[in-house]
Structure formats: C-alpha cells, structure tokens
Amino acid sequence: MNKSVFLGALTVAGLAAGAAAAGTLDDVKARGKLNCGVTTGLIGFAAPDANGEWQGFDVDLCRAIAAGVLNDPNAIEFVPTTGKTRFTALASGEIDVLARNTTWTFSRDVDLKFEFAGVNYYDGQGFMVPKSLGVSSAKELDGATVCIQTGTTTELNLADFFRKNNISYEPVPVETNAEGQQQYLAGACDTYTTDASGLAATRAAFEVPSDHIILPEIVSKEPLGPLVRHGDNEWGDVIRWTLNALIAAEELGVTSANAADMSTAGSNPEVNRLLGSEGNLGEMLGLSADWAKNAIMARGNYAEIFEKNIGENTPVGLARGLNAQWTDGGLLYSPPFR
Amino acid sequence: MTTLTDPPQQGSFRLSMLLSDTRYRSYTFQAIALFVLIVAFAYLGRNLIQNLADAGLNISFGFLGESSGYDINQTLIPYNSQSSNLQAAWVGVINTLLVAFLGCIMATIFGVTAGVLRLSNNWIVSKLMAMYVEMFRNVPVLIWILIIMTIMTAVMPSPRAFKGDDATASMLFGSFAFTNRGIYIPAPIWGPGSMVVVLTFVASVIGVFAYRSYAKKLLFATGRLLPVGWPSLVILFVPTLLMFFIMGRPIGADLPVLGGFNFKGGLQIGAPLIALWFALSIYTGAFIAENVRAGIQAVSKGQTEAAAALGLRPRRIMNLVILPQALRVIIPPLISQYLNLTKNSSLAIAVGYADITATLGGITLNQTGRAIECVLLLMLFYLIISLSISGIMNIYNNSVKLKER
Q1: Mean pLDDT within B95-119
Q2: Which residues in chain B are closer than 8 Å to A189, comparing Cβ atoms?
Q3: Residues A114, A119, A120, A121: is their CA dihedral positive or negative?
C-alpha cells in the first residue's frame, strides 16, 4: 500500500469536489455538523479523554465555532490529522477548518493557498532533553540524535538552527507526537524538538516529568492558528471573528458564566455589539445575532479555554507569556467589534 | 454454436458487419472500450487541470530545483539541507534500492532455507519451519516492521549506556557497538597500495571459479575427482593475505568510538535500516519458502528415487537433480515476491527510514505542497523499478526454464 498515492488521489478527488461547492458556511449549515481537523493526540491541545470526548485548546476553538455557526458546541466531527495529512485534508474539503497547532508561514498562506484566520497561540520551537544528559543549552547539542516530527516547519527550523551554529546532528523522523515520545523515552534520540507548548504537553504525559528539561533556546517563531481554504472569504471571516470574539471577550470581561447576563443588562456598547444585543454584526457574517454569545458560552473566553486546557494549573502548565492580552504585555489584540 | 453459415463474400464489407460478423465484432468492442477509457481519462485530467486553475494552482516541477531545507539521516550520496529537492529524491531512490537489494538477498536465503527444511524428515525441524511460515505470512508486514523496530529501540542499550565508569554496556571486541540507534562496525581505511590488495583479491575470486571449472572438466573428461572445498579457500585468502603484508598493511580499520552523544567513526548501520531490512526479508522469506516447497514438491518423487538408485547422496540429489528442476517452478512466483518486497519498502517511513516515499513523497511533498507532481514521480519511479526487476528476473527465468528443441 502506498499512503501518498492514496493522499494524492484524495487531493484530486477533493479538488474536484471543492470546485463544485463553494460556500463552506452554507455547507456546514446544511450538514448541521462542523468537520474540524485536529491532531492525532496532543494532551492539552487536542486529545480524546477517558470517555472518548475530544478535549483541548484547539478542540475548544472548534467547539466555539460550532456553537457560533450551528448553536451547538457538540455538532462537530473531529478528524484526526498528522503533520503530513493535514493540508491535503483541508485542501480536499474533507475538513472545514484546521485547528491543529499549525504554524502560519508565508508559503503555506501564499503558495499552498490557505488562509490563516489569526493566531490562537504564539509559540516557538524548543528542545527537550533528559536531565541526566547534562546539557543546558541547545548549542551544546553537537552530534546529537534529534527526534523530529516529519512534515512540519520544525523540521526546516532544525536544519537552519544547526547550520547557523555550525554543529551537526542526526535527524530521526517520526510521524506523530506519540511516536516521538516513545523513541525519545527509549533513548533512540538524545533530544526531542517541537513547539515549546507541544514539548510541555508531551512532558506532562511522562511518568516522571521532572527528569526532563526544556532547553532555554527558542529557535523560531511559531504563530499557531486555525486555517481555512483560500478563496472562501465568508467562511474565513467566520473563523477569524470567532477567534477574535473569544479574545475580545477576555479583554471586555465577558465569560461563559456572565455572558447571558451581560447580553441583556449591558451598558458597555462594545459588549452589546459583541453579544448581539446592539447592532447586526452577526447578520453581516451570515449568522444569528447572538453567535458570539453562543461561541463564548460554549467553552468560555480565551482565558478560560487557556487555563482549563494548558494553563499553569494543568499538567501541561504553560504560562500565558506572549499569549497574554496586549493590555498585560502580551500579543493578543482583537480588532474592535464595530 | 455455428458462427459461419454463409461463405464470406469477397470484397463486400458492410458497416453492419462490425457488429454482426464475429471476425470484426471483438475489434469493435475493443475500440469502443478504448475510446471510453480515453474519454474517461481525458475527463479526469481536464477536471484536474480546471480545478487546479480555479484554486490558483498549477502543475510544475520547478520545486525539484529549489533547496530542500531538511536533513536526512542516511545519505549514501553527498547531501545537506541546502541541496535541491531533486538531490533529496535521489538520496531516497538510493536508500530504497539499497534496502530492496539487501532485502531480496536476505529473503531468498531465509526462504530457500525454510522451504527446504520444511520438507525435512525431522518432525521438529519441519514443524518449526511451518510455524515460521504461518506466523510471518499471516501478520501484516507493517506490524512486523514496527515490532522489530520497537524491540530494537527498547531492548538494545542507548549510546549513553556505554559511557562513564559504571557503563552498563560494552563494545564487542572493542570494535562493534550494538545500540538502539544502530550497529556501529569498523570501517576500512584505504591507505596507499590498498588497491593492489583489492585487485589481488578480485584475481583470487576469478581464480577460484577457474579452478572449479577446471575440476569439473577434469571430472567429466577423466572421472578423476579433485578436492574443491579447501583449495578454494586457499586460493581465495592466501594470496590476498600475503599481498596485504607485502604492501605493509595498507588497509586499516576506523573503529567507532564513543564521542559526545553518539559513536563517531566506523560505519553506522542505522536502526531503521536494520528493522526494515530484517522485517521485509523475514516476511517475504515466508512466502518464498512456500514457493520453494511447492517447486520441490512439483518434481516427481520418481526423480529422487532414480537418483538414489544411481547411488547419489541426499545432498547431491537435492543440488543436482531436484533444485535445477524445481527452479523452473520457483522463479516466476519469486519475481513477484521480489516486486512485493520492493514495493513494501515504501513502508519505511513507519520507522523513519529515508526511502523515496519518505523524502520525495513525504517531506518534500509536505514542505512544497506539490502533491500531484510528487505522487506522479513516485509512481513513475516504482513502475520503472518494478519493470526492471521483472525484466532481469525474466532473463534469468529464460536461462533456467525447460528448453524445447
């Protein structure tokens, strides 16, 4: 069996299907279900829990979108994708939106004809090593064997980093995070590299997380965000503004608990416009007036989603860092709802 | 059924005969089928081009010249992350050919051994071989690849275990290291004058063949039996060893030594290569064993008995009487097993082996997004390789098959 041939055939078939049906928003409404592409399993970002329910940071974004569009946060078909299959799945129309910690790069945006709807996590590539290795900087990794997820931007950053520092390494390509974890723990590679958030999430799943450290070097910029197919601007707007609604909700103090109250008793005009009690922003998007309220009430605003899945009180234990609101010195900045 | 009632009329072809006349009917239908096929492919092709154009994409192979940007762990030709995607594809091609070549040889050895032993009169041996065949034939090869890789990474020590005073692992003879990243063996260093030694060795190999054919000729001509075993060994090794010392030991060994994170120096046979090679050959070997058994059983028992009646020993019966005849039955299915092995090598990415599917069809496809182009190239490559293998094997088949005179 040849997987790539199969994928190629899927692309061809999918491109044929994609041209026939243009409006993804209408498709999703007609189908009554959102097809959301996620990872095959990364604790904190997207992984099925003990009951088989998908949970995580990226999953909650999908739920917010489904709640906004279909008024039902559970009307989702989750499609697990690997680093290799994700773009084909999106291009072929198998999924409506890809929320799979995917880095926004020029060539993906321009050459692969996708549209990034924004950034939901500002990340950077890091290295994890066992403490016993006695390494304190990535520059000491000369000659090391490095586990790397194939088909990712980290693969290219890795080559660049080692070339820039004029040191050598031996790559061990792996397909999924789980495989990388297994190889790393077996000592088949000295270090595992991926986005720092992914490393934290992976380490959280270890038996003794404290035996492993994440090296201080962040060797790249990895803005992760949801993406859709190029050329379907209405659908792109829905995703972009759902993400912005979650971010704006945190800034304006709207949470899943008080969204219902604030939409009726609001005196802040921007909150009213966001929650649909003033103006017709929802209508402009082709959605109901209270779409943003539904989206926020699905899993909460950005801060709630962050804290619940990957925040400091979870096993993943990530600090807000760059992902704080602009008012707190972070990079999250939603354009105004007006 | 009577098909021809009237005598065919000379020179009076009517259009309706295309359907009614059995002489033309089959051509008519074949032409229609061909036409439909062409139309179908043209439709699909046009559809593809149209949809690509609508999406603002095109078919272009320009990406092959751009730098690839990624590194590969096993490169038999010069390659780094600045090399082109085409060079990365070549690296993959050579890695595929390497594992296919090694796999075919090893699978043949496994298969022939198991196939012959399965017919052994020894109950335990034949049952053990039956178990091997059934076990490996009935579990998918991908599972075997993963099992062997997992066992390798989990059971073998990591290079770290060789380090320090309380090392838990040590090198075999101080020169072989078995780690979960691969096996490190000494690599030869070719000093000045080493060419002479190599040439001597090549000459010795030719000498062995010459001696053997002389011994055979002598046997057929005069009936005198010359010893073959030990003189062959002498011819093979003594001149080379003499030359080695005469030239002042020009060939040294580059021993692997533990430095930093990994063993450095020596020759590394990576764990992915070993896992893939072993899994493919042991899996395909099980199929070949069945082919061999079928081939041997196809030779009538009378042949064995006749040979035994002539006073031949059992091993001679197998080598001189049974196997030459069995080969005619064995070779054709063997070809398809070789093809299977080569195509199954595309599962390499499961263990991170950089074959053509992993480089061109994996990383390059992903980083450039040129799915259709990459897949077309992949199909072309596997087609060429498969046709070449079956071409070569067919030539061999023709040389051993029954000559009809």
Answers
A1: 93
A2: 181
A3: positive
pLDDT tens digit sequence for A283-308: 999 999 889 999 999 999 999 999 99
Into how many domains does chain B fold? Answer: 1
Q: Testing the interface with B: which of A98, A129, A131, A150 to mutate, by most B Cβ within 10 A?
A: A150
By mean pLDDT, which of A151-155, A179-183, B11-15 is the weakest? B11-15
Instruction: Count chain A–chain B contacts defined by CB atoms under 8 A.
Output: 148
Contact A171 B366 (CB under 8 A): no
Q: Residue B74 falls within a domain, yes or no?
A: no
pLDDT at B166: 67
Chain B touched by A145 (CB under 8 Å) = yes
Nearest CA in chain B to A191: B261
Is B363 close to A173, i.e. CB distance below 8 A?
Answer: yes
> How many other C-beta atoms lie within 10 A of the C-beta of residue B90?
19
Question: Over 70: is that where the pLDDT of B70 sits?
Answer: yes
The residue-averaged pLDDT of A248-275 equals 87
At residue A14, does pLDDT exceed 60? no
DSSP state of B65: G
Distances (CA, A) of A16 to B137, B152, B361: 39, 44, 22
**B77 within domain boundaries:** no
Domain that holds residue B394: 85-147+272-400
What domains can you pick out in chain A, each with its CATH number? 3-122+224-328 (3.40.190.10), 125-220 (3.40.190.10)
Query: Does residue B108 sit within a domain?
Result: yes
**Amino acid identity at B42:** A
Residue B218 in domain: no
Interface test with A, best of B367, B377, B382 (most A CBs within 10 A): B367
Nearest CA in chain B to A172: B352
Report CB contact under 8 Å: B378, A4: yes
Judged by CB atoms closer than 8 Å, whether chains meet at B374 and A8 is answered as yes
DSSP for B299-364 reads S-HHHHHHHHHTT--HHHIIIIIIHHHHHHHHHHHHHHHHHHHHHHGGGGGGGT---HHHIIIIII
What is residue B256's predicted lDDT score, i.e. its pLDDT?
A: 79
CA dist B322 and B303 (Å) reads 7
Say which of A15, A144, A159 has its CB closest to residue B55. Answer: A15
Residues A54-84: tens digit of each pLDDT: 999 999 999 999 999 999 999 999 999 987 7
Q: How confident is the model at residue B265 (pLDDT cuts 50, 70, 90)?
A: confident
Contact B82, B65 (CB under 8 A): no
Per-residue model confidence as pLDDT tens digits over B320-332: 888 888 888 888 8
Q: Flag if A159 and B81 touch (Cβ within 8 Å).
A: yes
Residue A147, pLDDT score: 92
Q: Give the span between the Cα atoms of B162 and B176, in whole angstroms.
A: 12
Residue A13 contacts B, CB cutoff 8 Å: no
Q: Note whether B71 and B354 are within 8 A (CB).
A: no
Q: Which CATH number does the domain housing residue B111 bear? A: 1.10.3720.10
Which is higher by pLDDT, B53 or B343?
B343
Residues 31-90 of A with CB under 8 A from B: 83-84, 87-88
